[in-house]
Each structure stands twice: as C-alpha cells, then as structure tokens.
Specification:
Blueprint: H1 3-13, E1 25-29, E2 32-35, E3 40-43, H2 58-70, H3 81-93, E4 97-102, H4 105-121, E5 127-131, H5 140-145, E6 162-165, H6 170-176, E7 181-186, E8 189-190, E9 196-197, H7 200-213, E10 216-220, E11 244-247, E12 258-263, H8 283-298, H9 301-322, E13 326-332, E14 335-340, H10 345-353, E15 356-357, E16 359-361, E17 365-368, H11 376-393
Parallel strand pairs: 3-15, 5-6, 5-7, 7-10, 10-11
Antiparallel strand pairs: 1-2, 2-3, 4-12, 8-9, 11-12, 13-14, 14-17, 16-17
Helix pairs in contact: 2-8, 3-8, 9-11, 10-11
This protein binds pyridoxal-5'-phosphate (PLP).
The site of pyridoxal-5'-phosphate has 14 residues, from helix 4.
C-alpha cells in the first residue's frame, strides 16, 4: 500500500478528530523517522514528547522484549514486579509518597482531581483552581480544568467545581481562593498554551497559599516531566515540591502509561474501591518506564537536555536577529517555544517538506521538543532547515 491508499483508509474508517500531516510514519531510530516512501525526517517534536528519548531507544526495546517473553498483562488485583519497581523508582526521583498507575495524561489528571475532591470533601471543599491557557487532557473533567474554550465548546455541560484564573497572576490567584477551594492544578510550563513558563514568585506564592489553606497542589508534569526541562521534574527548578504530580508522555518511552504521584500526606486518601484502571501499570509499560529512568541516568540525559537546550536556545536567538517574524523565544531545557508575529502553520508545513518535524501550538508558537539524546549536529541541521523555511516564508 502507498501513502495515498493509507490516507484513503483513514478517510473511510478512522474518525476524523485530528489535523494530520500527510505522511505515513513507518520507522524510527533516535531522532530519525522514515515515512512509507523512504523519506527521512529529523524529529524535533516526537509525539508531544512521548518518544522523549528518541524513537525505539535500545534500552526501552530490550526491557520490553524481556518482559514480553514472560507476561503481558497482570491485573491489578494481583501484584506485578515491574509496577513495584517503577513506583519505587518514581518516588526515589521525586518526593516521598505513593503512585497510582494509569495509561495517559488525562487519566492521571482525573485521578488527581478525584484525590483532591476526596480529600477536600471531608472538609466541605470541592473546588479546584486552574489557569487560563492550561491544558490537562480531553476527558470531561480535564477539558473543564483546561483553561481554553476551544477544547470545551460543544461538550457542555462541563463538570462543576473548577475556577479559572490568569496564569502567573499572584493577586488574581489569591483572590480566587474561597472556603470552597480544595486544590490547585497547574503546569509549571504550559505546553499546549504556548510554552508559558511559571515565574518563581508565582509558584512560591501558590505553594505558600496551599500550605496555609490546606489545599492540594497538583503539578501536571505530563509534558514537562522526565528530564524535558533539564531536571527530572520541572518542580525542581522552583525549589518546592507539589503535593501531587501527574506524569505520562515520556514516562513510557513510547508506550502508553500514566502515573499520579501523591506525597505522604495524601498518599492514602484513595482507598480500595475508590479508583481503578484496568490496564494501569501493566508490566510491559512499567518495564519500558524503568528503562527510561535507567537511560536518563546512565546516559547523562539531564545534563544533555540542559546543555543542548541552551545551545538550541542560542541558535534560535540568532534566527530571531535575522527574522523579525520571531517575537520571543521561551522555555527551559529542551522544551522551547518560538513565538511568531504570524501564524506558524506554513512554517511547520514547509519544514516537514524539508525533512524537519516540528509543531505549532496556540496558532503562533512553534514548539521544539527533540528527544533528550539530541546532538549539536542535529540541532544545527534543524536550525539550517528553519532558516531556509523562514527565508522563503518572508519572501527574501
Ligand atoms: C498531553 C497532556 C495531557 C494529556 O495527556 P493524554 O495522554 O493525551 O491524555 C495532560 N496534560 C498535559 C500538560 C499534557 O501535555
């Protein structure tokens, strides 16, 4: 079958819920992916950071292969070795507490919302403060928590009990706290919202207010977690710890897995029967995630993310000097947004043609999140392509 035939099958049989780039991806290795026609691309946006260590990382592949030889699924009414090991690994790398396993970011956030309500309702509180331009997933509760109307329109009635506040606005946040407030949910760097980095003052104020009012502070680290920003978790940049943290995306090195981590104080709020996920924490997905932790440590990928992030940032600043369509460059580590004065979709389209996969979010923000294994040479190649594409777009 060729590309057109595959696309025709999608048109006929797959629900049309995505805007797709017309390439059929068949193979990936590191930052390289190949399409059905054999064309090679450099992947600077590996599935919203799902393939965050690059495609088919050898440690992930061999760990999964070993697991597959023994068992594929262990139901959660039994114990499985991989889940136990992964929970320990996550806690050792974040903060003391316990982990609930699921399969996606939205599901991890749902679990965090349920935990917050379960804790809050004991005190007559059930509201959660979330922020403008946030993104927390596509289930009904998480689109409500998501502070962008475009994801909510048409799906009313939304879930009750969420209150939306301007991101990074300390006064607005404090004013939004009422006797009903049970918790706060935020992304330390808003991903889909256009790479908006939380200021240190803002995070410190939120942490303080949560302590003073006994609120659950949830960090959605689905996109920022697992080394993306140069630290294992983004909260480390702020010198505080959240009460609850959600993970997915890079966690499984390409396999679907989500996790909600709750600090000791909240670790036993959810008791038997209160929450569940049939596939959650499957040995295969957990073995992949264990390999991701192993690779990040053994290959020094946090340091690489920090160094290569600075290099990519600096190279983008050079482009900014050349092209006035670049308004601002934002981010941390290898989570970088390039805000344009124009819409970014033509740049994304032309970059794909030139063999570079990137993303545009919030209409005007190009998003670059290459695998943590990225090299200088690959960054130079990406910048070369972006330079060429921008030159053409502004018609020089
Ligand atoms: C992608 C994302 C989600 C949703 O994750 P899914 O696995 O698609 O459900 C939630 N929060 C953030 C910050 C994300 O980037």
């Amino acid at each position: 079958m060729n590309t057109q035939e595959i696309i025709a099958l999608y048109d006929r049989f797959v629900m049309n819920t995505y805007t797709r780039v017309p390439i059929v991806v068949v193979k990936g290795k590191g930052l390289k992916v190949w399409d059905l026609s054999g064309k090679l691309y450099l992947d600077f946006f590996p599935g919203w950071a799902v393939s965050g260590l690059g495609h088919c990382h050898p440690k992930v592949v061999s760990s999964v292969r070993e697991c597959l030889k023994k068992i594929i699924h262990v139901p959660n009414n039994y114990y499985n070795i991989m889940q136990a090991k992964l929970a320990k690994k996550i806690i050792e790398n974040s903060f003391d507490g316990k982990v609930f396993f699921c399969n996606s970011g939205a599901e991890a956030n749902e679990a965090a919302i349920k935990l917050t309500r379960a804790y809050g309702n004991q005190r007559g509180r059930n509201e959660i403060i979330t922020f403008e331009n946030a993104f927390h997933g596509r289930t009904l509760a998480t689109i409500t928590a998501t502070g962008q109307e475009k994801y909510q329109r048409g799906f009313e009635p939304l879930v009750e009990g969420f209150r939306k506040v301007q991101f990074n606005d300390i006064d607005a946040f404090k004013n939004a706290i009422t006797p009903k407030t049970a918790g706060v949910m935020l992304e330390p760097i808003q991903g889909e919202g256009g790479i908006n980095v939380a200021t240190k003052d803002f995070i410190l104020s939120v942490r303080k207010a949560c302590d003073e009012n006994d609120l659950v502070l949830i960090f959605d680290e689905v996109q920022t977690g697992m080394g993306r920003t140069g630290k294992m978790f983004c909260f480390e940049h702020y010198g505080i710890k959240p009460d609850v943290m959600t993970l997915a995306k890079t966690l499984g090195g390409g396999l679907p897995i989500g996790a909600m981590v709750a600090s000791k104080k909240f670790a036993d709020v959810l008791r038997p029967g209160m929450h569940a996920s049939t596939f959650g924490g499957s040995p295969v997905a957990c073995s992949a995630a264990l390999a991701v932790f192993e690779a990040i440590k053994r290959e020094g990928l946090l340091l690489n993310a920090e160094r290569m992030g600075s290099y990519l940032f600096a190279r983008l600043e050079e482009l900014k000097k050349k092209y006035p369509i670049i308004k601002e460059i934002r981010g941390k580590g290898l989570m970088i947004g390039v805000e344009l004065t124009i819409e970014g979709k033509d740049i994304v389209r032309d970059a794909v043609k030139e063999g570079l996969l990137i993303n545009c979010t919030h209409d005007r923000v190009l998003r670059l999140m290459p695998g943590l294994i990225v090299t200088k040479k690959e960054i130079d190649r990406a910048i070369y392509i972006l330079d060429k594409v921008m030159k053409k777009i502004i018609g020089e």
